[in-house]
Amino acid sequence: MNDTPNMLDAVRDVVAPLCAQLERAQQEAAAARAELVELRISEQASANLAEYGTAQAVDLRKRLEAAEQRATAAEQRTEAERARAERAEKRADEEWARAARLGERVDEEWARADRERARADGAAARIDELTGELTKQVARRRRWWRFGR
């Protein structure tokens, strides 16, 4: 029975390092669990950020598509306005040419009217001249009829 204290000492000598090892292992396990918790929190935060980034990307993509559609519509309206402006400019040029032709025609008509007026004035002068001569002849004949018989 003397061996019992020695055996207990021997068991303590063997168990003490194992207990220390177990305690270190438990501390390491606790540290690993704490690190695992931190990593899971980081993973969740990363997932949240990725989800947020994806949502932002989707939102930006939709906004870009909407902006592109508005730009396309604006380009189409611009093209339509440009075509309408070109047609209006062409019509204005045609109207300008028509007005120039009408102006030339008016000038020709004025010249013709001036010639007709000159001819009419000449005819009126000739009529006045003939009327004057006729009046004189009539007056002579009246005198002749009154006094000449």
Concise description?
It contains 1 helix and no strands. It is mainly α.
> Would you report the number of β strands?
0
Number of H/I helices = 1
Overall pLDDT confidence: 90
End-to-end separation: 211 Å
Spell out the helices and strands N to C.
Answer: H
Q: Total domains, how many?
A: 1
How would you characterize the largest beta sheet?
Answer: none
Written overview of the protein:
- With 149 residues, this protein is mainly alpha-helical.
- It has one domain.
- The protein has 1 helix and no strands.
- It has one helix spanning 3-147.
- The longest helix is centred in the middle third of the chain and has 145 residues, at 3-147.
- The radius of gyration is 62 Å and the shape is rod-shaped.
- The protein starts with a helix and ends with a helix.
